[in-house]
Design a protein that fits this description.
The chain is of the alpha/beta class and 236 residues long. The protein has a single domain (15-232), classed as Rossmann fold (3-Layer(aba) Sandwich), CATH 3.40.50. It is built from seven helices and ten strands. The chain has helices spanning 22-32, 66-80, 115-119, 131-143, 164-172, 182-192, 214-232, and strands spanning 15-18, 34-40, 47-52, 55-60, 84-93, 103-111, 148-155, 177-179, 195-205, 210-211. The longest helix has 19 residues, at 214-232. The model has no long low-confidence stretch (mean pLDDT 96). The structure holds 1-O-phosphono-alpha-D-ribofuranose (R1P) and uracil. Uracil is lined by residues 90-92, 159, 178-180, 203-204, 206. Residues 16-228 form the Nucleoside phosphorylase domain. It catalyses: uridine + phosphate = alpha-D-ribose 1-phosphate + uracil; a purine 2'-deoxy-D-ribonucleoside + phosphate = a purine nucleobase + 2-deoxy-alpha-D-ribose 1-phosphate; a purine D-ribonucleoside + phosphate = a purine nucleobase + alpha-D-ribose 1-phosphate.
Length: 236
Amino acid sequence: MTPHINAEAGAFATTVLMPGDPLRAKYIAENFLENAVLVTDVRNMLGYTGEYQGKKISVMGSGMGIPSISIYAKELITEYGVKNIIRIGSCGAVSDKIKLMDVVMAMGASTDSAINRTRFEHTDFAMIADFNLLRKAADAADKLKVNYHVGNLYSSDLFYSSDEARYDLMEKYGILGVEMEAAGLYGVAAEYGANALAMMTVTDHIRQGLHLTAEERQQTLNEMIKLTLEAVSQDL
Ligand SMILES: O=P(O)(O)O[C@H]1O[C@H](CO)[C@@H](O)[C@H]1O
Ligand SMILES: O=c1cc[nH]c(=O)[nH]1
């Protein structure tokens, strides 16, 4: 057990899906996994292990922001032998080319967080997804006919930012979406030798001021969960 996870040794599968919201982890366990059991609940950061098409899979909340996901991802990898972490979250779009309900897969993750510079001797380490996980997710999205984009995401320390010029810059550089954890997850995976992928549904359009309805949010979330489970139920 760790300061933040009270699961027994061996309680997690080698592959863990990580939504930000622990109640989303509960929703996935109850609606998509078979024989799911709660394995950790410290601070109500719920984690479950169950089966999808006969394969052992875990799902656990990460909380919001790079510091939070960094704690859970590190402990899962070093104390529970987790090899693959797939973040499934929500993001805001900054470009007109990206529409609400699209799925965005982070081939790379830019950030305003100092955490990866702190980690990598104050130089820039490129935060990238594991290619095998990314390829499997893209293949599953093709198969399920989900509309998706692959490219660079921006992991922001601030959810509330009034820096419009930064959003202009992101659009110019082809940033597909803004969220708050991917670059941290990729840094932890690189440091401790695991594989990671971050995948988001576009729930907000930051520049256009558009937001999904509760019903649309649920539909697109279900599609992303399904495609992720299809991707990770193959041999990784
Ligand atoms: O929907 P989740 O996975 O929590 O992701 C996004 O939503 C939260 C902000 O509302 C941040 O965690 C951001 O990254
Ligand atoms: O971080 C986030 C997540 C969803 N939508 C946003 O605009 N930002």
